[in-house]
Amino acid sequence: MSLEQGLTRPRFRLPATLRNPMAVVGASIILLWILVAAVISHIWPVDPLAQNFDRLLPPGAAHWFGTDQLGRDVLSRTLAGSQTSLPLSLLLVVCAMILGGSLGAIAGYFGKAIDETIMRIADLVFAFPTIILAMVIAAALGPSLTNAVIAMLIVSWPSYARVMRSLVIGARGSEYVIAGRLMGSGAFTSLWRDILPNVLAPLLVLATLDVGTAILLLSGLSFLGLGAVPPTPDWGAMVSDGVQQFSSWWIAVFPGLAILSVVLAFNFLGDAWRDSLDPRTADAVQGRAI
Amino acid sequence: MTNETPAGDGAEEILAVNDITVTYRRPGRSLLTAVDGVSLSLRRSEVLGLVGESGCGKSTTARAVCGLEPLTSGSVLFNGEPVSPLSMKRRPKHLLGIQMVFQNPYASLNPRRRIGSQIEDGLGLNRQRDAWNVNELLEKVGLHPSDRDKYPHQFSGGQRQRIAIARAIGTGPDLLIGDEPIASLDASLQQRVAALMRDLAIQAGSGLLFISHDLAIVRTIADRVAVMNRGIIEEEGPVDTVWRHPTSAYARRLLAAIPVADGLGKLPGLPTRRQN
Amino acid sequence: MAGINASAAPATVSPGLSIRGLRLEIRNGKSIKTILKGIDVEVPAGRITGLAGESGSGKTMTAMAVCGLLPDGSVTSGDAIFEGQNLLDLSPRRMNALRGRKISMIFQDPTASLHPMISIGGQLTDHMRHHMKYGKAEAHHRAVELLTMVEVPRPEEALRKFPHQFSGGQLQRIAIAIALACNPSVLLADEPTTALDVTVQAGVLRLLRRLCDDLGIAILLVTHDLGVMSALADTIAVMRNGEVVETGNRFQVITSPKHPYTKALIDALPTHEAIMVDDDDE
Amino acid sequence: SSGSSSNTNTGSSSSVVVDSSFDLKTADPAREFETTGAIVAHALYESLLTFNGDDVTKPVDGLASYKISDDAKVVTLTMKAGHTFSDGTPVTVDDAVFSLERVQGIKGNPSFLLDGVKVAKVDDHTLTLTSAHANPALPFILPNGALGIVNSKVVKANGGTTDANDKAEAFLNKTSAGSGPYQLESYDVASQVVFTANTKYTGSEKPGHGRVVLRNVAGPTQKLNIQAGDSQVALDLNPDQAKEVQGGDLKTISGASPYMIFLLMNQNQAVNKFTSNQDFMTAVRRGIDYGKIVSLAGTGAVQPGGVIPSLFVGALKSDPSNSFDATAAKASLAKSGYSGEEIPLNFPNDITVQGLELQSIAASVQAQLKTIGINVKLAPQPVATELDAYRGGKESIGLWYWGPDYPDPADYLVFTPGQLVGLRAGWAANASPSITALANKAQAATGNDARQAAYEDLQRAMNKTGPFIPLLQPAKNVVTAGTISSVSLNPVWTIDLAGIK
Amino acid sequence: MPESSNSGGQARPAKATARGHHPLARYLATRLGLSVLLVFGVTLVTFVLTNLVPADPVQAALGEQAAADPQIVAQFRKQAGLDQPLPVQYVNYLGRLLTGNLGTSNQTRLPVSQEIAKAFPATAELALVAILISIVIGVALGLWAALRRRRAADHVIRAVSLVGLSIPTFWLALLMYYIFFFKLRIFPGSGRLSPTAIAPPHVTGLYTVDSLLAGQLDNFADALSHLILPALVLALYTVGLLTRFSRSSVLDVLNQDFVKAAKAKGLPARVVVTRYVLRGALVPIITIVGLAFGSLLSGTVLVEKVFAWHGIGEYAFTAATKLDLPAVMGVGLVVGIVYIGINFLVDVLYGVIDPRVRIQ
Ligand SMILES: Nc1ncnc2c1ncn2[C@@H]1O[C@H](COP(=O)(O)OP(=O)(O)OP(=O)(O)O)[C@@H](O)[C@H]1O
Ligand SMILES: Nc1ncnc2c1ncn2[C@@H]1O[C@H](COP(=O)(O)OP(=O)(O)OP(=O)(O)O)[C@@H](O)[C@H]1O
Ligand SMILES: [Mg+2]
Ligand SMILES: [Mg+2]
Residue B77 — φ and ψ, nearest 5°? Predict the structure, then answer.
C-alpha cells in the first residue's frame, strides 16, 4: 500500500488541490486577472486617466461600463485597477506573512522571554482597535496606498505570528526536530531546515485566504480617504467614489465585482488547498484569528 | 538469541546516571517529580532495557540522559563528562555521541526531506568518515539503496523506524537510546526491529539503552533490565534474573500481567488496585 | 468456512451474530476501494470470538459494518444476521434502534471515545433514557449499578466527574459500562486494551471474560495482540487484506497455525518460557 | 412617540427633519464658528443686526437698530423694545454687552470677529462699538450667529463670564438661553439637535414648525432619505445628487454659495522654484479649463472673477486673466524654464464644499495641466494634518476654499501680501508694493460704489501677478420635500430653520 | 485560543508536590492578571501612538485665526498639558485615567468619557444584534454544511459565505439601504430612532433595552426596526466568517471518536448533533465569536456612516482624522479594554463549557 502511495503521490500533489472544481474556477480567475494586470490593461486603447468623455454616462455601446463623475471610462479604470489593487494586496499579505511568520517562528522556537515579549506585543496590537490604529498611522504618514499597506501591515502581522508560533511550538517538540538537534544542528538550521518546510503550507493557505481580506481592508481605507491617492485607479477607491454617486451604480458595481471575483478566487483556492492539507495542519489554519 | 554473552565486565563504562531527579512544573504551579533518584550505568556493547508502565518516567529518563530535560538534582556522565542541558545553542561536540530513536515512526523523520540526505546528516557526525555510506546503511536495515531518494511518507511505519535506526547508527554513536522504538509497530514487526537495533548497536560497539513497556520483548534483546515504577527504579539486574526471579513486588505484578500467547486461555494476573 | 462449534449456532434464530460473505467497498468520487472481500465470522452468544490481523486488514471495518457506522460512500453486500434480520439491510432508523440497545461497541482509545465536556453520568444515561425510556432516577440507579459492576470506585461520585478525571483503565471500564447499559446481546470490542498498560489490561480482560460468562453476551474481540487473543478469545479468526485467512479455536490457531501468515505472526512473538511468579494478588 | 415623520401640514405643532453633514462642535454661540454651529446659533439666538433673507449686501435691524459714524469707527446700536428670552425676561443692553464681551473674552474661535472693538453700554437702550481704525465691515459682522445675544443672568448663573474662566458651555449645550425662534430640546454633537418653538419669541420670522430635528447624515444617505420622505430638507447634496432627485415633488433650490475654491501657488523660492515663477503661474492660470471645473459642480456654480464671491460687494464679474487658453499657457510654460518636473498639489481630502469633494477638482486640475505639459502630483491629507502645511506656507500648489467669516469684501484682504492667507502662499508683505497699495486703498474706501471699484481694481491686479487662482464658487443645493413651500437660505447661517414653511 | 499543554496521555503524577485547590479560580485569576497587564499596555500604546502623529494638535483644535495667536496657542498647550515632557504627560494621563477622566475633546470641549458613553452603547447595541444574528445563522449554516460535506448544500453555503466575506461593507450598506428602505420600505430610515421619537431615559444606552425598561413599547419597536437593517449588513461579514469556522470545527469534531461512540449508542441524530457535536465544536467557535465581536466594535465605521448611526466607529474615525488626540486615546483605550474584556469573557466561557479547564 505504501509503495503504491509512494509512486503516485508526487505526481498528484498539485492536482489534488486543483481537482476541486471550485479551485479550478479560482485559479482561472486569478490567472485572468494577472493577464489583465500584466498585459491587457497596458494595451487597452482607452486611457484610464483621460477625463475626455461625458460625465456619468451609463453603460452603453461606447462605454461598456459607463463613465464616472470626472468623465473617465470605468471599464479601462477597472482593468487598470488590477495594476494597483492586486500587487498591493499581494505585497501586503506577503509582507505580513514574512514579518508575522518570522516573529512567530522566533517566539515559538526560542520561547521564554522572547516569546512573551513578541506575543504580548501581538496581543496589544490585537487589542487595539484595528481601524483606529490604521487611521492614526495613515493620518500620521499621509494617505497613500503605500502608507495604507504599512498601516495594514502593522495591524495584520499578529495573526500570522500567532499561527506561526503555534505551528512552530507544535513542530519544535517533534521528534525529527529533536533528532536534528541531537545531531548538532543549531537554532537557525533547525528552524530553517527542519521546522519551516513543515509549517509553511498552513501559513501559505492562511495567506491565500487573506488576499481577499487585504483588498477589502485597503478599499475600506480608501473609502475613508486614507488609501489610494487620486487619480490612481484603485478598485476600493472607485467603489467609494461610487458611493458618492450612488444612482450611477456602474461606478461602484464593476470595480466591486472585480474585488468580489478576486476575493472569491483566492478563497476558493485557499479552501481547496487547505482541504488537501493533512488534517492536523489544517487545524492550525482554521484556528487563525481574523 | 536470548542472552548472548553479557558484555565483559572490563568494557569501559560510557554512561553513568547518578541519582537523578527531574521535576516538571505543571500549569497551575503543582510540581511533579517524574524521575525520582534514578541511577543507571551502561558499558560499551551492552544493552540495558528499561521497562515500566506508561507515565512511570521512562521517556523523561531518556530525555534527561540526552540533556533534553534539565536535572533537578544528580548528574549524568557520558564518557566521564557531564551532559549539559541542550539550550538553544548548538549541541556540544562531545555529546553528539548520544543518539536517540524515537517512539513515533511517523514523527521521527523530517517529512520534507529525502531520507538519503537525512541519513547523510548523521554520517557527517561520524568520527570515522568512511565507516558507512548511505547505501550500506540502507541495506543493513533491509531497504534498497534506491530508496534514498524517497520521502518518509513513502515508507511504512516499520520501514521508517528502520531508517531512523540507520540514521542514528550512521553517526557512530557511543550510546544509542531507543525510546519505545517499537511500541507503535505491528506485532509482527516489533520483534524484528528490536533485534535489528540490538545487532547494529553491538556491531558498532555502542551501548544501547532500550526503553519499552513490553517486558517480553526487552527480555529477548537486553543484557540487563531495570524496572521502573513511578519515577524510581524498583529492580535492576541481569535480564534472566529479573524475568525468572523478580524480587520486587512491582516487577512480579508487571510480569504476571503479561498475557501469554500459549493458546491456553489463561488470564493474566491482576494488578493491585491503585488509588489515583 | 465457518468451522466453529456448529452446535452453538442453530440455523434460524441464533442468539448471537453471524457474519456471512460480508463485502465492503468504499467509493470516493470515481475511485472504488475494496476493503472487505467476503468475511465469514460467527459470534455466538456466551463466547468471545477473536478477530486478529495486521494493521489495515479490515478488522475495524468489519465491526463498523455490523454497527452501520461506515464512512460515506460505503457499499456493503453479504449478511450480518442478528435475531433473524440482516443488519446490513436495516433502515437507518431501525439500525439506530438496535445500536446501543442490542448491539454495543467499545472503541480502542477510551480517552477519545468519551466526550470530554459531558459528565460521565450524562454519557452513561442518555442512551438508556432514549432506548429504555428510563426516568432520571431509574437511569441514575442503573448507572450506579453498572459502575459497580465494572468496578469503578465510588460510583456516585464518578457519575458527576468528567472523563479527564479518570485514568485510561477506568475510562475503558466506563466505556464498557456504557456499552452494557441496555443489556445488549452482542458486544463489539475494537482493540479495547491496546491503549492500556499491561497491568491495567489484565483487569479489563478479566472484566470482559466475566461479563461474557455471567451475562451470556456474544463478544467480538478485535485485537492484533495474540497474547490478549490467547488469554481471552474462545475462537479466533485471522484476517489479512480484507479476508479471513484462518478460523479455529484458540488452542488450534495459536499452537498449530495453518496459514503461513498466522504462522509468521506467531513466530514473531517472543518466546515465553514458564514465568515463575507467585500470583500473590489472586 | 414613534412613527412616520412625514408631515403634510405646516402648522406650528408639526415637525420637520433637516438632514445635514455635521461639523458641529458646540451650541454655545460664543464658541461656535462652524457651518452647523451657525445654523444652530441662528435658530436659538437673535443678534443685534441681521440680514434680510439671502441679501447680505445690507445689514438690517435685529434686536437693535444701528448707526455708523462717518469715519466708520463707531457703531451705535439702539435696542428695540419687546424682544424676550425664552424664559420670558426682556432682552436688555446688559445682555447685549455681556454677550459681545463674552465672545471677546473667552477667546473662542469667533472672538477675532470683534478684534480691536470696544463694547460700551451708553444707557439702558444704547450701546456703542468702537474700533481704533475704520471698520466699515462691523455692521456686516454683527449678524453672525456667534454674536447672538444670550440671557446674561441665566448664563452667569451657570458659570458664564467674560474671560477665559467661562464655564457656561456645558450648560448652553443642554439648554438654550436666547431669544431666537427656537429653543434647544436636545443636543447631541454627533447625531442630532432637536429644536422646539420658543413660545416667547417676538421676532419677525415666526417658526414654521413646532419642532425641528437637525440630523447628522452623510450625503448619499441624505439623498435616499429625502426621496423616501424620511426627511424634509437635505442640505448637503452634491450637484449630481441634486440633479438626480429632480422630477417628482422634490424641489431643488440651487444658487451660488459664498464659498470660493482656489489654487495657491507658493511664492517662496525655497518651497518651489517654479510656482514662484511668473511665467509658470501664468501658464497654470491659462491652462485650466474653468468651464469644465464649473460643470463638475453642476447648476448654480460659477467661476468667480476674483477672490471675492459673487454675492458680496466688490465681487468681480469675470476677468480675462483667468481664462482658458491652451496655446497661451504653453507659450508661457515654455518661457518659464519648466521641463516636466513633478509638482505636488496638496489638498485636504476629507472636506467637501457644498457636497463637492476637493478631490474631484484636484483630479480635474491635474488632468488639465497635464495636457499643457505640467506634471502635477496629487498629495491629499486629512484636513487636520494638511492644515499644518497650509498654515505654515509649505505647500507648492494648494487647493483650498475660503468661507466668509462675514459677508464683506474686507474679509478677503487676508489674500493680500503679508496677510494671513497671502503668507500661506509665501506672499511676503513686501512682495508686491503695488498690490499692497491697492489693498490699503480698498480697506479705506467707504461707500458702496467706492468700495466696489477699489476691490475690483485690487482683484484685477491680483489676478495678473498674484499667487491665487480662484477656480470655482460651487452651488448651494438645498433639496426640499413637496410638503415644504419655502426655505430661507443665507450665506452666513446657511439656512434659517424658522424659515422652513 | 487556549494553549493546549504538551503533556499528552493520561497523567498519573508520580508525586504531586503541590496541589491546586481552585483551579478555575486560579485560571481566571491568571487570565484577569494578564488582561490587566494588557490594559496597561494599551494605555501605553495609545499614548505613544498619539505622540507619534507628526501633525500639531494645536492647529487641529483651534480655529484658523485663533491658531495664529501665539497667546491662545500657549494657553491651549498649557491647558492640555502639552508643554510638559512626555513621561510626565504619560504619568499625568495615567493619573487622570484612574479617576475615570479620559480628558476633554479638542473639538467639542466635552469630556471624552461622556462622548464615548453616548457613542459606545449605539455601536454595542448594533454589534450585539449583529453578532447574535451571525451566531444563529452562521453556526446553523456551518453545521449544515459540515453535515452535508461535499454535497450541493455544502458548496452552496461555502460559496455564499465567501460572497459575504467579499462584498465591500460600505457599498453593501448603501445597497441594502437603497433596497430595503428606499425601494421596498421594509425598514425605516437612518438613525437609531425615528426623528420624531424621543430617546428613552438613559440607563444602559441601548435603546431597545432602555425603552423596555421604561415600558415604552412603541419606542422599543422603533429602535428594533432601526437596528435590524444595519445589523444585518454588519452580520453578513461575520455570518460568512462564522459559517466557515463552524463548518471546519464541526468537521473536526465529526472526525472524533466520541461522535462515532455516541452514534454507536444509538442516540438519534438530532441528539448526537446538538449534544455531542456542537458542544465539542463550541470552543473554537466561541473564540471566533469573541474576535469577531471585538472587531465589530471598532470596525463598524463604514456602516455607521451610511446609516447615520453615530457610534464609536464614527467617533473614532472623526477623532483620528481631526487629530482629536484625547478622543483618539479615549476611544482606543475603551475599545481596547472592551476587547480585552471580551477575551476574558471568552476565557471564562471556556471554563464554563470545558470541564478540563474548570476542573483539574
Ligand atoms: N513536559 C512535561 N510537563 C509536565 N509533565 C510531564 C511532561 N512530560 C511528561 N510529564 C509527566 O511526567 C511523567 C513521566 O512521563 P514520561 O513521559 O517520562 O513517562 P513514560 O514512562 O515515558 O510513559 P509512556 O510509556 O506513556 O511514554 C508523566 O506523569 C507525565 O505526565
Ligand atoms: N474512511 C475510510 N475511507 C476509506 N478507506 C478507509 C477508511 N477507513 C479505513 N479505510 C481503509 O480500510 C482498510 C481497513 O481499515 P481498518 O480500520 O478496518 O483496519 P484495522 O484492521 O482495524 O487496522 P488497525 O489495526 O490499524 O486498526 C484500510 O486499508 C484503511 O485504509
Ligand atoms: Mg514515553
Ligand atoms: Mg482498527
Answer: -110, 130
